[in-house]
Write a structure and sequence with these properties.
With 191 residues, the chain is an alpha+beta fold. It is built from seven helices and three strands; from the N terminus they run ααααβααβαβ. The protein has a three-stranded antiparallel sheet. The relative contact order is 0.08.
């Protein structure tokens, strides 16, 4: 039984033999590449796998040296000329932490233009008015809502409206306090 590796090796060996005898059809994947080398027997250099520095052609080295010796104004002119010559559009500088993002659609731009309302998560419960007939009931509820408050302090708080009952409470807790105080005869505002 043959392994896949053995089959591939055999196929490559046969293709190489056909290629060396020029019996290989032109549509074969292993056909000879036309390169800039002068002789057809000259082998292409394989890239080095160790981190050895790459040797650049003298033409490239000369270009790098010429560009490195330019002043900022000359670099700007070179940049402008290259953009015109190569039809490159002007693009703004990207910051290092910027990620490429898809361009927003026109609908997204319209939504962004509309003011965004942030949903409040913390509320202040404020007692603004009371029904005179249910004053005692409201004083007891205020005493129950605020820990450490005695009846005298709760009475003074209710008589000097509007007063803040609790600040920075969650939406659920603010809703419960509002329901309790309104049931006791008060008018409550959530801010």
């Amino acid at each position: 039984m043959f392994s896949a590796r053995h089959c591939v090796r055999s196929s490559l060996r046969i293709a190489t033999q056909l290629h060396s005898r020029h019996e290989l059809p032109t549509f074969c994947a292993l056909r000879r590449l036309k390169t800039s080398s002068s002789s057809s027997n000259e082998a292409l250099e394989s890239p080095s796998l160790d981190n050895a520095p790459k040797d650049y052609s003298p033409k490239i080295n000369q270009l790098v040296n010429d560009i490195a010796s330019l002043t900022l104004l000359e670099v700007s002119d070179l940049n402008e000329l290259l953009k015109k010559t190569l039809n490159i559009k002007d693009m703004g500088m990207m910051s290092m932490d910027a990620m490429p993002v898809a361009l927003p659609s026109s609908q997204a731009l319209e939504e962004e233009a509309a003011p965004v309302k942030k949903e409040k998560t913390h509320f202040t419960v404020k007692l603004t008015e009371l029904k005179a007939a249910e004053k005692v009931k409201l004083i007891k509820e205020v005493k129950n809502c605020i820990p450490g408050l005695n009846l005298v302090q709760a009475k003074k708080l209710v008589e000097s409206l509007p007063q803040e009952i609790k600040a920075n409470v969650s939406k659920d807790e603010a809703g419960k306090l509002k329901a309790v105080l309104e049931a006791a005869g008060g008018t409550v505002v959530l801010e």
